[in-house]
Amino acid sequence: MRASVVISALIAVLVGFGSTIAIILAAASAVGASAAQTSSWIAALCLSLAVTTAVLSIRHRMPIVTAWSTPGAVLIVATSGISINAAVGAYMFAAVLILLTAAFRPISALIERIPKSIASAMLAGVVLSFVLAIFDHVGTEPYLVIPLLILFAIIRVFSPVWAVLAVLFTGIALAYLFNLTEPLAPLHLSRFVWITPHFEPGVLIGLGVPLFLVTMASQNLPGFAVLTAAGYKPPSRSILTVTGLASLLSAGAGAHTNNLAAITASICTGADAHPDKDKRWLCGPFYAAGYAVLAVFGASLVVLFASFPAALIATIAGIALIGPLVGALSNSMDDEKERFIAITTFVVTASGLSAFGIGSAFWGLAAGLFVYGLDHFFRPHRA
Question: Is it the case that residue 64 has pLDDT exceeding 90?
Fold first, then answer.
């Protein structure tokens, strides 16, 4: 067992949980969840991710890792006048729609046929924003960010994975040294609370359907693309079935949608995790173990992650994604005939375009596939 497998998995957990947990808290507040219901929501999400990642990665021997729907949480934040009970009903409805999608074979077949050049370019476009975010904090907290960048550059000469780990521990130490953290509360165990769903037609259509659409477009499709870009053939029907079922079962405890990870998945699917592509699936069980711990102590660990400065989380995330960015850019340019297609996908994705509540990852894929279709339709006629 290589240390890089464990390190990559735990860094992915840190980045995934720490960078978006504030959005989950905002979503819980938007639907009027109590403190107990919010704790249950977070614990159920973490347990769901642990189970689905373990099942999928071990069964398919691929680094298939799952995450909560961050765009879905943003959508929930934007709602108003919806009770937590009605929201849970909408979560269940969205989960049923995901299961129906898994049962519809043509959709799964289309997902599996995403060209590697487009998938890699999309991944590069998404990851680029995280890497560039490092430099947003250089001007505000240079004493924290600059030493971490220098440390990474030096240690990476010897080991990229250990360099990321060194940045993590050194960053935490510097945050405490400069008194940038908040006081910590004692750890206590999470508790699950049953929330009776209310199936209100207006909420099912107004929240449930959009939640399904943004989860598929902004999370699952990019997640499939990440696996494709890494050289895997993702089992789309199996993934949608497992995550859809997990979403349905965990909704009663307050959790919204479970789906494929995209950004954090790239940390586990690249060569830095393991040079042998067929052994990177080992990241899955360790990733699952990390989220299992978060499920046990979820409410307390929210306070821990919230105590870290935003600059630290952004720097760790950006540095951890430099390797995946390099790999994705290289893979997207492999085929000279598809470089224009790849650049189109990359530029649209990196632009941050958002329309109809759907993020730039989907529009980048859509633009790339559109140009790909035009190119392959007219090329025979040019000959």
Answer: yes
